[in-house]
Design a protein that fits this description.
Elements (H helix, E strand, L loop, with lengths): L2 H7 L40 H13 L4 E5 L2 H9 L7 E5 L4 H11 L5 E5 L5 H6 L4 E7 L11 H10 L4 E4 L4 H4 L9 E5 L13 E5 L2 H14 L5 H11 L2 H21 L3 E5 L9 H7 L6 E6 L4 H10 L4 E2 L9 E3 L11 H6 L7 E4 L5 H12 L1
The structure holds pyridoxal-5'-phosphate (PLP).
């Protein structure tokens, strides 16, 4: 089945008891047993819920995996992956990491005796050099936030496969429409469902997709034991969102291209980070592993002054200043004072997050209106 058909149909069969075409919201915490231990596959709402089951099947299908697992947030899904590890284990991770993931790794799990090594994964040789007999997980994020660097998943999978090290990819920025890490050799795909999969800025949720039965069982054990599972109402909203994922992504991509190209020609704009440009440092890798280049980008204002960025952000009318991304509405952020404010300035600038850098999550409005908004704000 092709992607659009899967987005509309995968995981969702009409409800057998009523014929309802949409999976109902099974708002229940428990299920009747006809005799002790005799039930229809559902015992307790933390362990299983039919609305969640439908969503988990749909997400697995979209990522070309066998098993999907949903969590109460993207962070809860990452938390579950790290709980596969033991004290003394080492994790190699991208240095250009979502701030919340960095915080979870260093502030929560480092004190439990797990060691995290952060390397620049644009060059897979840096991963090869960091592997030791204690390496138990490689954590990739691509495209990265907010500088839109691309990591070659297939090249890293070649390094981990031979050594039987699980490879996990945070696929939030790309969505399964643009990139399927399992097809490229990854063992675990992670999503902040909050972003493109939900797509309407009305749900916080996370998900994992895996192929391996044993790994799925271990993760389901953690999911149920730790209990960070989403409610049925949220699962319903994401099931609804998924049905238009391909349509939304098409428009995110075409609007993204129009705006990136317009920004690159603007006399007041410095650098535009968007993987669709031929002179983007990892364009060849992006072209190989992604189907298109998406609507996420970042750019600087010439002169790179923070006050110019603040003035610009205050002048936009359609683009809304907010954390998060991937919704139908266009959002923008100032990483230096928002997501990356906790980094020391020098380290921040070294990683490409300069004072005037602005991140855009281009929505699905009309590109002409979005460009008009950016034009008047730059003016
Ligand atoms: C938002 C985000 C997360 C965290 O997800 P939540 O749903 O906010 O918990 C993780 N990784 C990336 C790349 C994100 O953008």
């Amino acid at each position: 089945m092709k992607f659009s058909t899967k987005a509309v149909h995968a995981g969702v069969d009409p409800d057998p008891s009523t014929g309802a075409i949409m999976t109902p919201i099974f708002q229940t915490s428990t299920y009747v047993q006809s005799a002790p231990g005799e039930h229809q596959g559902y015992e307790y709402g933390r362990t299983h819920n039919p609305t969640r089951t439908a969503l988990q099947h749909a997400l697995a299908a979209l990522e070309n995996g066998k098993h999907g697992l949903c969590f109460a947030s993207g962070m809860a899904s990452i938390d579950a992956v790290v709980k596969l590890l033991n004290p003394g284990d080492e994790v190699i991770s991208t240095n250009d990491l979502y701030g919340g993931t960095y915080r979870l790794f260093t502030k929560i799990f480092e004190p439990y005796g797990i060691k995290f090594i952060f390397v620049n994964m644009e060059d897979p040789a840096n991963v090869a050099a960091a592997i030791t007999p204690r390496t138990s997980l490689v954590w990739v994020e691509t495209p990265t936030n907010p500088t839109l660097r691309i990591v070659d998943i297939e090249a890293i999978a070649k390094l981990t496969k031979g050594k039987a090290i699980p490879l996990a990819v945070d696929n939030t920025f790309a969505s399964p429409y643009l990139q399927n890490p399992i097809d490229l050799g990854a063992d675990i795909v992670m999503h902040s469902v909050t972003k493109f999969l939900g797509g309407h800025s009305d749900v916080v949720m996370g998900a994992l997709v895996v192929n391996d039965d044993d790994l799925a069982e271990r993760l389901a054990f953690i999911q149920n034991s730790c209990g960070a599972t989403p409610g049925p109402q949220d699962c319903f909203l994401v099931l609804r969102g998924l049905k238009t994922l391909h349509l939304r992504m098409e428009r995110h991509c075409s609007n993204g291209r129009a705006i990136a190209e317009w920004l690159a020609k603007h006399p007041k704009v410095g650098k535009v980070n968007w993987p669709g440009f031929e002179d983007h440092g990892n364009h060849d890798v992006a072209k190989r592993q992604m189907r298109d280049f998406g609507g996420m980008m970042s750019f600087t204002i010439k002169g790179d002054k923070q006050e110019d960025a603040i003035k610009f952000l205050g002048s936009c009318k359609l683009f809304t200043l907010a954390e998060s991304l991937g919704g139908v509405e266009s959002l923008m952020g100032h990483p230096a004072s928002m997501t990356h404010a906790s980094l020391p300035r020098e380290a921040r600038i070294l990683s490409g997050v300069t004072d005037s850098l602005i991140r855009l999550s281009v929505g699905v409005e009309d590109a002409e209106d979005l460009i008009e908004d950016l034009a008047q704000a730059l003016g």
